[in-house]
């Protein structure tokens, strides 16, 4: 949602190959390491002429009936949507980071790290890091729209990375780290476009938002060791120096 050097992902070749991300924390950490170069990587009733009917409609009993009917309607809709989920896919730098952020949101059912947008089937991490498969490191978020909306996810996405840098997040450089929203429905696409425009118009960033909005394609799940990386490796150097501070900044820790 990121050796020989303790804080870089590049030297992590005795485990499977790993990359780094977005923050000046990472850059600072790398600079004090061994110096090895890291891989870039919602109608009311009709009116009546009868005053008795009007009085009756306004009575507490009828108000209670109306309220009960509305509550039943809402309850029925909630029951109908219960158990339904939707999918959102985001690329915002190292998937370790974006995954760790999105997993902390109420209403998010599951988050998987993987690759999307490329032209090679079943890509490996090593292939993606070569920068010639066209894939982006992404997270696929399964969420309950009854608890959290796509717009809510977009708000967090914008805060969790820098959407003004092209093919780069912090110390991580390369097309696999670009900022992308892969949309699964026309509604998602419209929401993403409106959200991006609102962010640009807000003046929050001095540079324009360069985040791409693209139709979702095949999602290739990343290797097992990438899944829940922060959860499984909280004391790993990159996690302590990059991910933990990000979670604290966003109010998740």
Any overview of this molecule?
The protein has 253 residues and is α+β, with helices and mostly antiparallel strands. It has a single domain (24-38, 83-249), classed as Peptide methionine sulphoxide reductase MsrA (Peptide Methionine Sulfoxide Reductase, Chain A, 2-Layer Sandwich), CATH 3.30.1060.10. It is 38% helix and 15% strand.
List the helices and strands and how they pair.
Blueprint: H1 24-31, H2 51-57, H3 60-81, E1 86-92, H4 95-102, E2 108-116, H5 125-129, E3 136-143, H6 150-160, E4 168-169, E5 172-173, E6 179-183, H7 186-202, E7 212-215, E8 220-221, H8 229-232, H9 237-249
Parallel strand pairs: 6-7
Antiparallel strand pairs: 1-3, 1-6, 2-3, 2-8, 4-5
List keywords for this structure.
253 residues; alpha+beta; Peptide Methionine Sulfoxide Reductase, Chain A; two-stranded antiparallel ribbon; 9 helices; 8 strands; 38% helix; globular; disordered N terminus
Give the termini distance in whole angstroms. Answer: 15 Å
Write down the overall mean pLDDT: 78
What structural class do the secondary elements suggest? alpha+beta
What's the tally of helices?
9
Q: Topology as H/E string?
A: HHHEHEHEHEEEHEEHH
Q: CATH-wise, what's the superfamily?
A: Peptide methionine sulphoxide reductase MsrA
DSSP strand tally = 8
Q: Based on the structure given, which CATH architecture is correct?
A: 2-Layer Sandwich
What is the CATH domain class? Alpha Beta
Give Rg in angstroms: 23 Å
Any idea of the CATH topology?
A: Peptide Methionine Sulfoxide Reductase, Chain A
Largest sheet strand order: 7-6-1-3-2-8
Determine the strand fraction and express it as a percent band: 15-25%
Low-confidence stretches: 1-8, 10-78
Residues in helices, as a percent range:
25-40%
Tally of domains: 1
């Amino acid at each position: 949602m990121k050796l020989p050097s303790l804080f870089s992902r590049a030297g992590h070749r005795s485990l499977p190959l790993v990359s780094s991300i977005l923050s000046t924390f990472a850059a600072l950490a790398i600079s004090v390491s061994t110096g090895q170069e890291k891989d870039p990587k919602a109608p009311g009733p009709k009116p009546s002429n009868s005053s008795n009917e009007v009085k009756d409609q306004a009575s507490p009993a009828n108000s209670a009936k109306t309220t009960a009917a509305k509550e039943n309607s809402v309850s029925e809709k909630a029951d109908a949507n219960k158990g339904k989920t939707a999918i959102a896919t985001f690329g915002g730098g190292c998937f370790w980071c974006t995954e760790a952020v999105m997993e902390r949101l109420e209403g998010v059912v599951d988050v998987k790290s993987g690759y999307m947008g490329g032209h090679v089937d079943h890509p490996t991490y090593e292939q993606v890091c070569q920068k010639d498969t066209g894939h982006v490191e992404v997270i696929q978020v399964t969420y309950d729209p009854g608890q959290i909306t796509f717009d809510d996810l977009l708000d967090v996405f914008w805060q969790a990375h820098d959407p003004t840098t092209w093919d780069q997040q912090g110390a991580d450089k390369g097309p696999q780290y670009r900022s992308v929203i892969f949309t699964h429905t026309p509604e998602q696409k419209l929401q993403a476009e409106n959200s991006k425009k609102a962010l640009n118009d807000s003046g929050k960033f001095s540079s324009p938002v360069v985040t791409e909005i693209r139709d979702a394609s095949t999602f290739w799940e990343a290797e097992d060791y990438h899944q829940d990386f922060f959860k499984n490796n909280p004391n790993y150097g990159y996690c302590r120096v990059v991910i933990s501070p990000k979670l604290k900044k966003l109010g998740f820790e």
